[in-house]
Design a protein that fits this description.
The strands form 2 sheets. This protein has a 7-stranded mixed beta sheet, with no helix packed on it. It has a 6-stranded mixed beta sheet with strand order 7-8-9-10-11-12, covered by helices on one side. The two termini are about 20 Å apart. The chain is about 20% helix and about 30% strand. It has one domain: Metallo-beta-lactamase, Chain A (4-Layer Sandwich). The protein is an alpha/beta fold. The longest helix is centred in the middle third of the chain and has 22 residues. The chain is built from 4 helices and 13 strands.
Length: about 230
């Protein structure tokens, strides 16, 4: 498995069967094998997670097989007219074109998170599923947020049934200030994963270094941004 960082929450994952392009927002794509299928996954309609221009970009590369998998909150007018889209809702399980299994989890913001089984490899992309606790918000709202987030992560851990994620892309947002690590820490404590890529850090990769300094017990599983494949 090869992972390439595109920007923000956007990652390109190549396995033996296909490419997965998660939450493309902006940036360049690397040259792709035109004969290999590209599954384009968008977790929700926020502009920093879905940009329909990605389909024309892939077309210009001459990619012959493009399969959009879009969250159900993305309206029909924003879906590519020339491609057959698979639209998924929270809690739904579906089979992807090469026989992979995808399950969609309910986001704590909008849309879904994705978990994919591709042969012996498991891939998780959180989208905006995170413990979005904010200083200054009502305590009851923050408490409800934490409960909602932990319920979904516990459901993911239960569904894995002892399997280990090969790669996981999980929110680490510095805008949450002192609560920035809540979601990632709970994920790491509950879900087995070989490689965890923090994301959604708004061009502030130093927040990953801060996390590792404050919580060194997780360093073995965190892949720091300075070691990522990046399109330049």
């Amino acid at each position: 498995m090869t992972v390439t960082y595109i920007g923000h929450s956007g990652f390109l994952v190549e396995t033996g069967s296909c490419y997965y392009l998660f939450d493309y927002f902006q940036g360049q794509l690397p040259p792709l094998n035109r004969d290999k299928p590209v599954i384009v996954l968008s977790s929700h309609s926020h502009h920093d997670h879905y940009n329909p221009a990605v389909f024309s970009m892939l077309g210009r590369q001459g990619v012959g097989q493009i399969f959009p998998v879009l969250s159900s909150d993305i309206p029909p007018r924003d879906r590519p007219e020339h491609l057959r889209c698979r639209v998924v809702s929270p809690g739904e399980t579906c089979i992807l074109p090469q026989g992979q299994t995808l399950k969609a989890y309910r986001s704590t913001d909008l849309g879904v998170a994705f978990c994919i089984r591709d042969g012996e490899e498991w891939i998780y992309h959180a989208g905006d599923l995170n413990d979005w606790v904010w200083q200054g918000e009502p305590e009851a709202d923050n408490r409800r947020m934490t409960l909602d987030y932990r319920r979904e992560i516990d459901r993911l851990a239960q569904d894995l049934a002892g399997q280990t994620l090969t790669a996981a892309f999980v929110v680490l947002d510095p805008r949450q200030e002192e609560d920035y690590a809540r979601g990632l820490r709970y994920f790491l404590d509950r879900v087995p994963a070989e490689r965890v890529y923090p994301m959604h850090f708004w061009e502030q990769p130093q927040v990953v270094r801060r996390f590792l300094e404050e919580y060194p017990q997780y360093a073995r599983r965190i892949v720091p941004p300075d070691s990522w494949n990046i399109v330049r």
